[in-house]
Amino acid sequence: MRGLQLxxxxxxxxxxxxxxxxxxxFGFTRAVVAVSGGIDSALTCVLATRAFGPANVLxxxxxxxxxxxSSQGDAELLVAQLGNPSKVIDITDAADGxxxxxxxxxxxRRGNVMxxxxxxxxxxxxxxxxxxxxxxxxKTELLLGYGTLHGDMASAVNPIGDLxxxxxRQLAHAVGVPAPILTKAPSADxxxxxxxxxxxxxxxxxxxxxxxLLVDEWFAPAEVMAAGYPEPLVRQIAERVRRxxxxxxPPVIAKVSDRTIDRDFRFPRDWGL
Length: 273
Prior knowledge:
Blueprint: H1 8-24, E1 31-34, H2 39-52, E2 57-61, H3 69-82, E3 86-88, H4 92-99, H5 107-128, E4 132-133, H6 139-144, H7 165-174, H8 179-183, H9 196-200, H10 204-216, H11 221-226, H12 231-243, H13 245-248
Parallel strand pairs: 1-2, 1-4, 2-3
C-alpha cells in the first residue's frame, strides 16, 4: 500500500532528532532501551544510539526462563554492532516469586507479569544510569491494544509509536538492523512457541493496510470492506481499536473541582521549562 511507504532517510533523521530533543529538554543526555532481540526494540536502540552516541544508551536484556535463547543472541548481536553498554538481568526469580502464588494464572496473565516485571527493572536501571526510558511499541500494536499496560507500553518517549509494523520493517532495514532480527517471525517471546500473528489471528501486513485506511484515511468500516477487505476481519480490527482506547489514554479522573487535571489543567509536557 502506497501510503505505508516511508522516506527512510528522512524518517530516521526526524526520529533521531525527536529522541534527542525530547530527552534533552528535561536535562538528560542518556537513554535506556529494553532490547529483546525483536525488530521494534532493535530499531529503537539504533535510533537512540544515533541520537546520543553508543556510550549514552544502555541496552537492557531481560530474559525469562522460557525465553528463546536465540532472542538473547539476537539482542547481543545488535548491542555488539552498535557498541552500547549493556546488562543482562534475568527476571525469572522476580516474576516467579509472584507467579508461584497464582497457580491458576494462564499464559496471558503470566505474560503480563513478565512484561511488568521487565518495566520495573528498566525504570530502576534508568535511575541508576541517569537516563530516560525510550519506548518500543509501534503504531499497529498501540492501535490493536496488543501490549501490556504499565509493561512494554510504558516509556518516557516513544519514537516508533507512529510507525506501523510494516514501516518499522522498512526503517529497520534502512538503518542496518542485523539480518537475523529482520527476518525472524514477530514474537513477544512471553512463552514457548508464542507468535504475535498466531495470537492475533491475522498478519501484521494485512492489519496495517486496514488500520491505515481506518485511522489515517478516515475510512468507515463499510468503506474498507468495499475496498476488498473481508468483513469479519475489518470488524474485528475496528472493535479491537475501540475496546483498547483505555490503554492509549491517561487514567480518566473524576471531576469534582473547577480545574480537573486531565481536561481543564492541560499544558504541554515541557510547560514551565
